[in-house]
Amino acid sequence: MATFAETELAGEQIASGLVQAESISGDDEMDTTLLLKMAEDANLYIASFPWCKTVLGSYFGGGVGGIFAVFFFHIRPSRPEVDPWIWIMVGDIPPAYLPLADCDSPAVAFRTYILGMSKWVELARKGQTGAPDQGIPPVKLPATPEWAERLNQKLYGLTLAVKHVFEEDGETDRNLLQ
């Protein structure tokens, strides 16, 4: 496990390669407007947790306005076990967070989000829920087969619509489309 100083340094290094959230520029004016709204949504989401004492900074990791975006937040946690750097995913899907310890880039955050939500879908099809230690983000939806299918369809569409934004070095991950 990394020390606080190591986590701070790693977060600062990642943030230095991202755009500050307030400086987002989309493909056009509409995309920019939608992405800025998503940045607000991500800020409200992270600030809603009692372990987030203060938001110190936010950065845009990539996305498509109104559909899906990854943000990277620097926070002052209210508890020592909480990472000061957190990935937030928002859009036309359930929001989620991932600590820096789980993802070292926006692309990894995207893949981890998709895989975690896919695990939730599999469990929800059986009426079960999972936990973060199983790689499943908290989802504020009923764990029913009906909701599982709705989310599964959204995840498939999301993957088709934004996967290209998060491909690293020209690599693709065919597993995301299965």
Name the descriptors.
39% helix; 178 residues; globular; alpha+beta
Rg calc: 16 Å
Distance between the termini: 33 Å
Low-confidence stretches: 170-178
Strand order, biggest sheet?
Answer: 1-2-3-4-5
**Tally of structural domains:** 1
H and E string: HEHEEEEHH
- Morphology call: globular
The helix/strand class is: alpha+beta
**Proportion of residues in β-strands:** 15-25%
Number of helices: 4
- Helical fraction equals 25-40%
The average pLDDT value, as a whole number, equals 91
Number of strands: 5
Major β-sheet, in short? 5 strands, antiparallel
Describe the structure.
With 178 residues, the chain is α+β, with helices and mostly antiparallel strands. It has one domain (4-177). The chain contains four helices and five strands. The chain has helices at 4-16, 29-47, 106-124, 145-162, and strands at 19-20, 52-64, 68-77, 85-91, 96-99. The protein has a five-stranded antiparallel sheet. α3 runs antiparallel to α4 (145-162). The termini are far apart.
